[in-house]
Design brief:
Elements lengths: L1 H11 L5 E6 L5 H13 L13 H7 L6 E4 L8 H12 L8 E5 L7 H12 L5 E7 L7 H4 L3 E5 L4 H10 L4 H8 L5 H8 L2 H18 L4 H13 L3 H25 L7 H22 L4 H13 L3
Parallel strand pairs: 1-4, 1-5, 2-3, 3-4
The structure holds zinc ion (ZN).
Length: 307
């Protein structure tokens, strides 16, 4: 983990003055950048980690610390003026300490002018200044900039870690699990979790699943009455089947968990696997452009068949 690596550098006093964090969306680059900035300014460091609660930590988190500047693309690019403003900001008197950190998000979107301006900045490092560049496209960053940075690679969180992170952000476990199937991007997941459509979609698939599990014929009617109305776009429809499959998988896991108690579950397990397969095949058909309603009705028919 990158954080542990950074912590070690901190302990050994070998923190670099420029970092390039590269990795896919949702791999925690921004969070780590904020954490590193906090580590440098925290007033109450414990076990070589920022406390996350002191005045400095809180201001950094809220992007209100004058010595920690965050830059994002303004529209499609990061413009040269943004880098110039950054320099001006840092040369102002009145900033609180000599330490300065700047974080540049989507650094690959720097215009040529911005990149050159930044390069000058990096070429004349001020001992107290640290640059943290974040990127999802390292190949699009000037090699001269890359060569001045310590490059740290971020890999995707495992699903479990992702769910934990979401829970830390106040998303319920059940929701977090759903979301982990939708996106690998933490910020986006939090955003979706607050989206009304997502909640409706989740409720609809939950209800549908309960009907199917109970071999309730209403599950057939529900396709037209609700499912087709909630899941309109192709993407959403694929998601509907993913969510349904997830419910079946969880049910399956519960069955396996109960095996130790009841030995005679092999028939149920076989059946459960067959059910998951039905949904999987439904998904294939949907991908092959069979209409959503047809796919769902066929699936329901197969799932209800041997009640
Ligand atoms: Zn602190």
């Amino acid at each position: 983990m990158v954080m542990i690596q950074l912590q070690r550098s901190y302990q050994q006093g070998t923190i670099a003055h420029a970092y390039l964090f590269e990795g896919e969306v949702g791999t925690g680059k921004k969070e780590t950048a904020i954490w590193l900035a906090q580590l440098l300014f925290c007033q109450n460091i414990q076990n070589d980690a920022p406390c996350n609660t002191c005045h400095n930590c809180l201001r950094i988190k809220a992007n209100e610390h004058p010595d920690v500047q965050q830059i994002k693309p303004d529209g499609q690019t990061i413009k040269v003026q943004q880098i110039r403003d950054l320099k001006t900001e840092f040369s102002k008197s009145g900033v609180e300490t000599k330490k300065k950190v700047f974080i540049i998000e989507s650094a690959e979107k720097m215009s040529a002018g911005a990149a050159n301006s930044l390069l000058k900045f990096l070429e004349e490092p001020d001992g107290q200044m640290m640059a943290i560049l974040l990127t999802e496209g390292k190949a699009r960053i000037l090699p001269t900039i890359q060569s001045r940075c310590q490059i740290l690679h971020f890999s995707n969180l495992s699903r479990d870690q992702f769910i934990k992170e979401l829970e830390n952000k106040g998303v319920s476990q059940k929701k977090a699990e759903y979301l982990s199937h939708l996106t690998g991007d933490l910020e986006k997941a939090v955003e979706i979790s607050q989206d009304e459509w997502f909640n409706e979609a989740r409720e609809a698939t939950d209800k549908w699943f309960t009907q199917l599990l109970n071999k309730d014929f209403q599950a057939f009617v529900y396709v037209q009455k609700k499912v087709c109305k909630v899941f309109k776009e192709k993407e959403q429809q694929l998601l509907a089947l993913d969510l349904l499959m997830l419910s079946y998988q969880r049910h399956f896991e519960m069955l396996i968990g109960g095996l130790a108690v009841k030995k005679d579950n092999s028939y149920l397990i076989q059946k459960s696997v067959a059910e998951i397969e039905i949904i999987f095949n439904g998904k294939r058909k949907l991908e092959a452009n069979v209409s959503f309603q047809n796919v769902c009705e066929q699936m329901v028919w197969l799932l209800l068949k041997d009640r």
